[in-house]
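Narrative of accomplishments. A recurring question from our advisory board has been how the design workflow behaves on a single, concrete structure rather than in aggregate. To address it, we present the structure tokens for one chain from the evaluation set, followed by the sequence designed for it. No filtering or post-editing was applied between the two.
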């Protein structure tokens, strides 16, 4: 178990695309598809749809991200790993 915890912590410290960025990327792709289907929209209408999409994504992501990030900087994953590792250490 200790090797897994060590591997996981080294893996999570690697730079990678975060889920919020992926969600925003998918949202932008879908918005672009929709806008291409409606070429008659004015620039103001397009900006309005972009703002709407961004607002919805931010609201969807807010609570999960808030729950995953603790005030002391410890993520939920770290808490789970610590709880898994503690009993195993006590067995040996």
């Amino acid at each position: 178990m200790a090797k897994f915890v060590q591997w996981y912590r080294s893996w999570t410290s690697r730079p990678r695309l975060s889920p919020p960025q992926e969600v925003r990327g998918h949202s932008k792709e879908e918005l672009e598809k929709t806008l291409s289907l409606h070429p008659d929209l004015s620039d103001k209408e397009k900006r309005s749809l972009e703002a709407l999409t961004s607002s919805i994504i931010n609201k969807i992501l807010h609570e999960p991200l808030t729950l995953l990030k603790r005030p002391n900087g410890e993520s939920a994953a770290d808490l789970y790993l610590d709880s898994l590792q503690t009993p195993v250490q006590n067995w040996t």
